[in-house]
Specification:
It is a single chain. This protein has two domains: 5-94, Winged helix-like DNA-binding domain superfamily/Winged helix DNA-binding domain (Arc Repressor Mutant, subunit A), CATH 1.10.10; 104-350, Vaccinia Virus protein VP39 (Rossmann fold), CATH 3.40.50.150. Helices cover 51% and strands 16% of the residues. The protein is built from 14 helices and nine strands. The strands form two sheets. The protein has a seven-stranded mixed sheet, with helices on both faces. The chain has a two-stranded antiparallel sheet with strand order 1-2. The N and C termini lie far apart (58 Å).
Length: 351
Amino acid sequence: MQIDQGKLEQFLGQVVGELGAAMNAALVLVGEKLGLYKAMSGAGPMTPVELAKKTNTDERYIREWLSAQAAGGYVTYDPAKQAFELPNEQAFALAVEDSPAYLPGAFHIVSAMLKDEPKLVEAFRTGQGVGWDQHDVSLFEGTEKFFRPNYAANLVSSWIPSLSGIEEKLKRGARVADVGCGRGASTILMAHAYPNSHFVGFDYHGPSIDSARQAAAKAGAKNATFEVAKAKDFPGAKYDLVAFFDCLHDMGDPVGAARHVHQMLNPDGVWMIVEPFAKDKLEENLTPVGRVFYSASTMICTPASRAQEVGLCLGAQSGEARMRKVVMDGGFTKFRRATETPFNLVYEAKP
């Protein structure tokens, strides 16, 4: 084996950076769960003693945590004052839960992936699936926390307005199904924005539906209800809008789900499909964002599909062409990309 020493050193340097980032995932969770980022937000320079006192934590642990955060650029350090500060930009991403850039939820997902690694190793060997319900609870909490800010920033302001005639229907009063709703973040956001409409969130995962009901009650979303049901058999009268948020690619039989949506829509209804941003060719997705999506797809999305009937395994980077085929095979005649963000593609399908 011939080794290029320069390339080896370059790769090792890359790995060292990634090791630090991987280890920092646990520290971000510590910071979120103990309220350390929130305590530092807008507080200016703080010593470990001051932060420990403010958060009722141990100073020695806090000093080591702050040192690691400073080494990673999450906080700044002033040697003269021996104090640490959380810049506003980092605070916006780490301490402000309704910020569109709020990130700690992603680290809960990372935690679940690491905890579930033994299950995935076995799945790689056997080809069997690992269902969504078989993952660590951190995945359910993390998914809600990670996706909710993005939905809050885009769903009502740009995604729904991009659909043909749907916004006016929702303002007047419409029936909406939110399929694969998880803990109900998207359903509740829509319910608040359009009080004249009625929203039903469906998910096959019972504990998530229980959480969604509690969240809706807490938020006062009386026009939102939640039921346990699968994408291929969710009930109800005809809907004006059916929404799938970041879930169609997880399904074992997305074509079967498309057929059921087609049956459940009014003739002038719309199916809104929100998916991770992806281009059609693998080489076009080999980016930092693509890496995140492919990694999550390896550990979560593909195993979820494999655990279900058919097991089509679209993956989180399926791209527009494959999504179009799934939708058209399900009986729809119209399909278009309605809008997009750097992280999502929003498709509109009509009967």
